[in-house]
Amino acid sequence: MVSEITDANFKGLINGNKPVVVDFWAEWCGPCRMIGPIIEELADEYKDRAVIGKMNVDENDETSGEYGIRSIPTVLFFKDGELAGKHIGAASKGILEGKLKAIL
Q1: Which domains can be identified in the chain, with CATH numbers?
Q2: Closest to 99 (Cα-Cα) out of 56, 57, 39, 59
Q3: Annotated active-site positions, please?
């Protein structure tokens, strides 16, 4: 299940004991809707090894601004509290899964 990531819980999640994948998205974003099902699949498949969630940029501008999110979808990959990877734009499951596996 995809985690809902907000400005309030973001720091705690990325500083936890699992890698974190954050999909920055918005309701009105067509490409965001395209990768939504991929993010959900990855969340189900890797639920024991990583936290995979979505952050609505319209509702969470603090974190979006901190990481310079200007285009969505943008997917950020964190390991041990540090940014370890980034993908901007729509992507296949293989691309996103490859970046996730690189931080596991």
Answers
A1: 3-103 (3.40.30.10)
A2: 39
A3: 29, 32
